[in-house]
Amino acid sequence: MRFLHTADWHIGKKLHGYDLLEEQRHAFQQILAIAKEEAVDGIVIAGDLYDRSVPAVEAVETFNDMMIQMNLIDKYPVFAISGNHDSSTRLETGGPWFSYLNFHLATRLEQAFQPVEFMDTQFFLLPYFEPIAARLHFEMDEIRTIDQAMSVVIEEMKKKFDPEKSHVLVSHFFVAGSEKTESETKLTVGGLDTVPLSYLEDFDYVALGHLHGKNALNGKNARYSGSPLKFSLSEMNQEKGVWIVDTDKNTTIFRFRELQPLRDIKQLQGSFSELTDQTFYENLNRNDYIHIQLTDRAVISNMMNRLRQVYPRIIGVERLYGRDNPINKNSVKPSLKKLAPLELVEQFFEEVTHEKLTSQQVKWVEDSLKSIHQEERGE
């Protein structure tokens, strides 16, 4: 059998306030194109279909459109699980009849012990779970960590192995030896972020989700697909894509197919005058998501607005060498407790944005503070 392995779609995720639905639809179309080009027999999605347990309406509509295209129109069997960002309860709505359309979605631990048999392969769909789920399922009070839980879970799965078929595990955890980036939720409660790689060695292939880089783990039979998009600056240099996996009962071969982003994440460094000089940016894709490292020390008037006129999707500005303090260095900064509310707001705003409040913004703050004061006095 040949299948495509993807994960961590995080439909509905925002990047520093920017909506990524257009980028996510663009990546999905590339995934479908690769599936058709490679003539895959099915598609695996290893968790984190959504970015939030209660996704926005637009995110749900986008995901529904994707599944209609993939499963109903293009007729690809789908083997999917819930991840730590998904609400298993909400996600499983409709699950019982999805399977009649070859859309196999596992959101509960017990579903992992009934493999989905397709062609020459058994798919064990193990959604994200916490140790208490295994403790209750197996009625074993000694299960307190994911290590202890997975030891029992894997042994239970192996009882269902058909020796005439290949065995594929689809799961969503942090496997020992993997590397994380800042956009991935750290799981630490109860030792939840460690699954020993040795537990997975009896599977022909382990399709993992949760970590966003394809090189986070290089097990001989286990891979993270990584996310289809870059979700943080720390993923800036990651190659994004999907795995194409070929299985039979004797061997497993997998290879990576790269995706091209609609808008990339880039980091630019230079002085304000350099970065806003047309000769510097004329050959750049200024619609990319840009993180700027400024080398200036001086205060720059209306800096963010002027930068956004050139780079409309700025995700951060960093002063590499600090900023000159226009206040006399010998003057003593007053205690925050002695500052009036408006002064506190002005100081905070300037420290965060490197700009001063405009007269209109000052008026808004004053009106808001007045309203709060009146509410406190019961007026």
From TrEMBL:
Alphabetic keyword roster: DNA recombination, DNA replication, Endonuclease, Exonuclease, Hydrolase, Nuclease
Residues in Calcineurin-like phosphoesterase domain copies: 1-213
A GO term, aspect molecular function: 3'-5' exonuclease activity
Source domain of life: Bacteria
GO biological process: DNA recombination; DNA replication
Entries under Gene3D superfamilies matching the protein: 3.60.21.10
Domain Nuclease SbcCD subunit D C-terminal: 261-352
Assembly and binders: Heterodimer of SbcC and SbcD.
PANTHER family in alphabetical order: COMPONENT OF ATP-DEPENDENT DSDNA EXONUCLEASE (PTHR30337), NUCLEASE SBCCD SUBUNIT D (PTHR30337:SF0)
Function as written in the Swiss-Prot or TrEMBL entry: SbcCD cleaves DNA hairpin structures. These structures can inhibit DNA replication and are intermediates in certain DNA recombination reactions. The complex acts as a 3'->5' double strand exonuclease that can open hairpins. It also has a 5' single-strand endonuclease activity.
Family stated for the protein in its record: Belongs to the SbcD family.
UniProt protein name: Nuclease SbcCD subunit D
Species of provenance: Enterococcus rivorum
Gene of this entry: sbcD
